[in-house]
Design goal:
With 62 residues, this protein is of the alpha+beta class. 32% of the residues lie in helices and 21% in strands. It is built from two helices and three strands; from the N terminus they run βαββα. The protein is globular, with a radius of gyration of 10 Å.
């Protein structure tokens, strides 16, 4: 699944996004691209499981 994260601008942001996603699914594979403001996530969890933790981390996703 793919998340558009408007506030993700740099590598530090990408690390925070990655940690937030892995707090829900430690086995998730994340490819964060700050330049495109996209995070590609491979997981068995539903999309809705990640939206609250991303928002709580300061990186709301669409």
């Amino acid at each position: 699944m793919q998340f558009h994260i408007e506030k993700m601008h740099c590598g530090g942001c990408a690390r925070t996004v990655t940690k937030a996603i892995q707090s829900v699914d430690p086995d998730a594979t994340i490819e964060a691209n700050p330049d495109a403001r996209l995070a590609e996530v491979t997981t068995s969890m539903p999309r809705e499981a990640f939206l609250p933790v991303l928002a709580e981390a300061g990186y709301p996703a669409t």
